[in-house]
Design brief:
Radius of gyration: 17 Å
Strand content: 5-15%
Structural class: alpha/beta
Largest sheet: 4 strands, parallel
Length: 228
């Protein structure tokens, strides 16, 4: 497996200093893990695109695809990233370069399709509340997210009002009122669950996790942590 750790998880680490990373979980799952050469200088390009710099985004994406093409043995090895928006952006770059076919998945899609079928049932935890990111839903990954969560938790809660958290790149830092308004209904649903029982809170994008943590007042973690 070729792992593309997102900028988000490299810059904004998990709340717990000893939290397992995606490479740790994949290795524990029996996969040989490698990263592209020069990973510290690679980015999918989404931050540039969201700020209105399409050429910078294109160049960043081209560098990432070139490194992934080499690391994946010219597309023979699947590529996994730990942030659904990064997976979506890399997939879009790959579609624009059909001469270099690459299979790029976010973590829940990889774990649902490649890991769960070859592993014994996990020791399941209690309740898991999930927040699906916009890109995950747009790319049809909700079923995979729920499949993984249900394999690792006795009960999974998907709030009925779970929508875009409003973080939208860095807007959650610059205009926190946007995220506060966007998450109000979902946060109330989650608070009602937490009032009755303890639960773990999970998503698949670090900034979404930060936004939901602020809204609910309890830490959201990567789905990687539930699997770990």
């Amino acid at each position: 497996v070729v792992v593309f750790p997102s900028c988000l998880t490299r810059v904004f680490g998990p709340a717990a200093a000893d939290a397992a990373g995606v490479c740790d979980v994949l290795s524990a799952g029996g996969f040989a893990v490698r990263e592209p050469a020069g990973m510290a200088g690679l980015c999918c390009g989404m931050p540039f695109a969201s700020k209105g710099f399409p050429e910078a985004a294109r160049q960043a994406g081209a560098r990432a695809l070139n490194a992934l093409w080499q690391a994946s043995q010219e597309g023979r090895v699947v590529i996994v990233t730990d942030a659904s928006p990064c997976a979506g952006t890399l997939q879009e770059h790959a579609r624009n370069a059909p001469s270099r076919p690459l299979r790029i998945l976010d973590f829940p899609s990889f774990w649902a399709t490649e890991a769960l079928p070859r592993r014994p049932p996990a020791r399941r935890k209690g309740v898991a509340v999930v927040h699906p990111t916009c890109t995950l839903v747009k790319n049809g990954g909700l079923t995979d997210l729920l499949t993984v969560a249900r394999a690792c938790a006795e009960e999974v809660v998907l709030p009925a009002s779970a929508e875009c958290c409003g973080f939208a790149g860095d807007k959650g830092f610059l205009t926190p009122e946007l995220t506060e308004a966007a998450t109000r209904r979902e946060a109330a649903e989650v608070a009602a669950v937490l009032a009755l029982r303890d639960a773990g809170l999970y998503s698949t994008c670090r900034t979404c996790e930060i936004g939901m943590t602020r809204a609910v007042g309890r830490p959201y973690q990567s789905l990687v942590q539930l699997v770990a």
